Amino acid sequence: MQKQEELYRGKAKTVYTTDNPDYLILQFRDDTSAFDGERIEQLARKGMVNNKFNFFIMEKLAAAGIPTQMESLLSDTESVVKKLDMIPVECVVRNIAAGSLVRRLGVEEGITLNPPTFEFFLKNDALHDPMVNESHAVAFGWATEAQLAEMKRLTFAVNEVLQPLFAEGGMLLVDYKLEFGVFAGQVVLGDEFSPDGCRLWDSETRTKLDKDRFRQGLGGVVEAYEEVGKRLGVQFD
């Protein structure tokens, strides 16, 4: 499969067209951003780590019956993915209170949420990804009721797969965000699942092993990502 033109350049990934109109190449760069792109740095090996981590997770989800856009690992920093008609609404599940939920509601960080909470957010950096509900999404044509219901179902199905997976590696899956698109009429998990888009804590020490290390200036960002992967059995070399 041949890489062709650059289709989209995000904060940490670049998407390219290929000679097959149904497939794209997703390139993970070493760029690391926070606060809607206000802070950007280059962290060596990050693109490779996130690409291989994402491929590993997507394979686990696919094996559990969750449809994903992942097709194959192409290189250290690139993957072949299905071309989705992306839905501009993100799904967020929170198992433990952290991040924006703590700031928004004034609750204590670290509280276990039982049952886990679920939220929709509009994918719009200029507006700082505001929270929306099903009514907004349908009224503005971002998604249909059926699509939203399927997105929610799949987001919780991901939780059922990944919570025990991370627990086996001595980690807590605190929260995560997912993006979906449509391929051949089916709602499919797209974008990525990596420590860039979720929160992961060590089960015993509650040490942060995710992008909060970058946001909060804790250092050791890529090293933490690699530690997460190694606990799960991801091969980086």
UniProtKB/TrEMBL annotation:
Domain SAICAR synthetase/ADE2 N-terminal: 7-231
Pathway noted in the entry: Purine metabolism; IMP biosynthesis via de novo pathway; 5-amino-1-(5-phospho-D-ribosyl)imidazole-4-carboxamide from 5-amino-1-(5-phospho-D-ribosyl)imidazole-4-carboxylate: step 1/2
Protein name per its UniProtKB record: Phosphoribosylaminoimidazole-succinocarboxamide synthase
Gene: purC
Species this chain originates from: Aliidiomarina iranensis
Keywords associated with the record: ATP-binding, Ligase, Nucleotide-binding, Purine biosynthesis
Reaction(s) the record says it catalyses: 5-amino-1-(5-phospho-D-ribosyl)imidazole-4-carboxylate + L-aspartate + ATP = (2S)-2-[5-amino-1-(5-phospho-beta-D-ribosyl)imidazole-4-carboxamido]succinate + ADP + phosphate + 2 H(+)
InterPro entries linked: SAICAR_synt/ADE2_N (IPR028923), SAICAR_synt_PurC (IPR033934), SAICAR_synth (IPR001636), SAICAR_synthetase (IPR050089), SAICAR_synthetase_CS (IPR018236)
Pfam families in UniProt: SAICAR_synt (PF01259)
GO MF term (any one): phosphoribosylaminoimidazolesuccinocarboxamide synthase activity
NCBIfam families: purC (TIGR00081)
Keyword Chloroplast: no
Superkingdom in the source lineage: Bacteria
CC per GO annotation: cytosol
One annotated GO biological process: cobalamin biosynthetic process
EC number annotated for this UniProt entry: 6.3.2.6
Family named by the database record: Belongs to the SAICAR synthetase family.
PANTHER family named among the record's database cross-references: MULTIFUNCTIONAL PROTEIN ADE2, SI:DKEY-6E2.2
